[in-house]
């Protein structure tokens, strides 16, 4: 518990998480407001539903990745990681405590973004059916918290491996915006098959499955299998990061 308290204090006593959380809220909720309030339904290709209320989550997800990567790399940047490992000689335990704090923070931010976007959509599209009546609707909103937690673990693991802020942030953003969602899909014959087992694609499908217009996210298996695939990627990468940290100098 003392390690968790220490990591919580370190996480909340720096400015970058607070700036990231504020920016994630502005971008995600603001983009959703623009889509729901200004784009005609016929241009959206489907009626406004719970999936539409999460139109801005991609931007929030990018900021959550930055926040998590910074949580891992800032200590290396300012060389405070040595103090952390002196206070907690078991490096794995120390990093698992950091992972727990960052994952909880990611989940809470994700829920804030999801319900903030849903709430503003209720105000801007009062005639749309946005009630959370089905499992698919709940996953589209409440499930964002699980998606965001795994996103945070994924980015934190990259930060643990890279140890350099700019490099880790560049990798997670390029992976999320370019590699997984664009470059992989243009590989002849096998591109779509590979994409079906990649982390963020499965996170997208977990939230979108069962909703109108979700075909572009379909990875060929159920939403809960998708969540397990995403978790396997995130925690698998974390395990690699922990093993590497055990073997190299702080």
Automatic annotation (TrEMBL):
Stretches that traverse the bilayer: 57-74, 95-120, 140-162, 169-190, 224-244
Domain of life: Bacteria
Keywords assigned by UniProt, alphabetized: Membrane, Transmembrane, Transmembrane helix
Keyword Transmembrane: yes
Name of this protein: Uncharacterized protein
Source organism of this protein record: Kribbella flavida (strain DSM 17836 / JCM 10339 / NBRC 14399)
